[in-house]
Amino acid sequence: MPDxxxxxxxxxxxxxxxxxxxxxxxxxxxxxxxxxxxxxxxxKTESTEQEDFFVNSHFxxxxxxxxxxxxxEKAQQKETERVTKLVEKAQKTPPGQPLEDxxxxxxxxxxxxxxxxxxxxxxxxxxxxVFDFAGRKDARTHGLAENASKKMQGAVWIDEQDRQxxxxxxxxxxxxxxxxxxxxxxxxxxxxxFDQAPxxxxxxxxxxxxxxxxxxxxxxxxxxxxxxxxDFDYKRFTVETQQSSEAQPVLxxxxx
Length: 256
Description:
Layout: H1 4-21, E1 25-36, E2 42-55, E3 58-66, E4 69-70, H2 73-92, H3 106-112, E5 113-123, E6 126-135, H4 143-149, E7 152-159, E8 164-172, E9 176-178, E10 184-186, E11 191-200, E12 203-217, E13 221-238, E14 254-255
Antiparallel strand pairs: 1-2, 1-13, 2-3, 3-4, 5-6, 6-7, 7-8, 8-11, 9-10, 10-12, 11-12, 12-13, 13-14
Helix pairs in contact: 1-3
């Protein structure tokens, strides 16, 4: 068994290098969300199809379909404006610092966690090392998502050959309150799973995930949701830029 500290340093370094390489790729994600009532029955199902890409290591998603239907012209224009502004902000935000309303990247999560209890196993036919982990209470964090990471625990599967995160399982160890609980409270036990794999030219990219969240909004509305994501259609892209003092970021346009 390799030294834990050295192994995690290598994994973090590989993940940061991966964040840079992935900026030449895009892929499609299909997210499905189901609302579940107190009896465990599904009351509502919604789906969102998105084009996913990376700018300055930041993960950005552009919605292209809602519930299987392409966005209408007005919604497309609004989405393009939203994503263009996000791209501009990503270009100015250093890697490792979160964008507004963004989740926690794998590389950032690795920096926030303490790991223990290493053991070997096979995952999808590949040799992996599994660690238990918990969020470090003393970690310096920025934004809601990173603050929430301090109240998480779980296990992480590290591909031994490529030193990449292959699988991640996380659950909340305590309630997480937003705006002191006046706006929302995510209940203890909410959980999710996440997968990465070498899917294009040996490059590790997300392949999917799922989870269950129970929360209360505005002190009165209790919500329980199951969500799942499937990632596919991995492609390289080129980005066209305008060479002028007033140049604006342009979204991924052409694919190989």
